[in-house]
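Annex B. Sample input.
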Amino acid sequence: GSDARHTLETRRVSVEQGPGLGKIVELDVVQLEHPEQSTGCSPRSESLMHRLACLLVALATLGGCQTDPNAPKATGQVTPTVAGGAAPASYPGYVEARQAFTRQSADGVVIATLEDSAWLRFEGPPEQVEANHRAYFEYGYTAFAVVLRARSFTRPTTEEFLLEDSTGRRVAARPVGFKGNLITVDDRWQYEFDLAFQHTISRDVTWLKLTRISDGEFVEWTFQK
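Annex B, continued. Sample output.
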């Protein structure tokens, strides 16, 4: 039978190794006793709408079920895992860890989660997680899991994003694939994709900014030392 959701799916991001970049971290095994206990959400959920709903439910759970204060902010502090640095930051579970690395632009168009072993270690068996996030684990690239909630129809593969950091580096990239529903939700076209840049987060980087070039919507991470 036909799929009523008319879901478009393409392959994950594929990248080639750039000069000076390489594997930055080995993934440890994490035992998940109750991964769905608090929100009913699985770290390995594949549905765009389900994962977005999980994100919003997690925010309400962590923030006392208030409305606006629980939306992801456009900026915020976090401790990234970097080559030669300390072990990944410790979190009680997948929801809390992933949420710490998630930002939402002011207009809600871009929801981006900076890939980091602090939350990826909760996703599943290490070999499976590393295979699903090759840009980050194998090449040491700065990578993001992105939900784009556009006000008009677009093809994410034509969207250009700019990554900037505190050292003055500026790198542009486009997603090579996406998942999306050919319907609008809350008057937004919603797409999910991975985005990887030939850039690595070194110990001297103090902030990172990701901008959707077409409208200037941005999110930013400030790094704690």
